[in-house]
């Protein structure tokens, strides 16, 4: 695949799944969550792990969690698992939240992964997250 070619998304909505994902213009992913049910989390984990397996370049991902009021243990466990995959070292991840409680929960996830695994920014304003995401990416080895 050419470095400028956008990779196929390979995601389709499923009944009862509380998130959507679209390809960003920079090639990354934009997730929007409306719930974090067991079915949603399992679907997201499977999709994310497969997507990481196919990862071949620096990526900017955005997670819009503004509709989520708190994280359950399954969400935390899955997020730590996905963020701990060595392939995440080439991902800049912006998470947009609507409360200090969610900001703290996301920061705890970030604290459970090593700095070399994922570059994480937490925001309450989606425009600020986009500005942060647009900074030049640096390949981590």
Q: What percentage of amino acids are in beta strands?
A: 15-25%
Strand order of the largest sheet: 1-2-3-4-5
Any idea what the shape is? globular
Alpha carbon gap, first and last residue: 21 Å
Average pLDDT, rounded to a whole number, is 85
What integer value in Å does the Rg equal? 14 Å
CATH H-level name... which superfamily? STAS domain
Q: Main β-sheet, in a few words?
A: 5 strands, mixed
E-strand count = 5
CATH class: Alpha Beta
Listing every helix as H and every strand as E from the N terminus to the C terminus, the arrangement reads EEHEHEHEH
**Model regions low in confidence, pLDDT < 50 over at least 5 residues:** none
CATH level 3 topology: Transcription Regulator spoIIAA
> What is the correct CATH architecture?
2-Layer Sandwich
Domain count: the total is 1
- The amount of helix comes to 25-40%
Indicate the topology.
Elements: E1 19-23, E2 29-33, H1 38-53, E3 59-64, H2 73-83, E4 91-96, H3 100-111, E5 119-123, H4 126-133
Parallel strand pairs: 2-3, 3-4, 4-5
Antiparallel strand pairs: 1-2
Helix pairs in contact: 1-2, 2-3
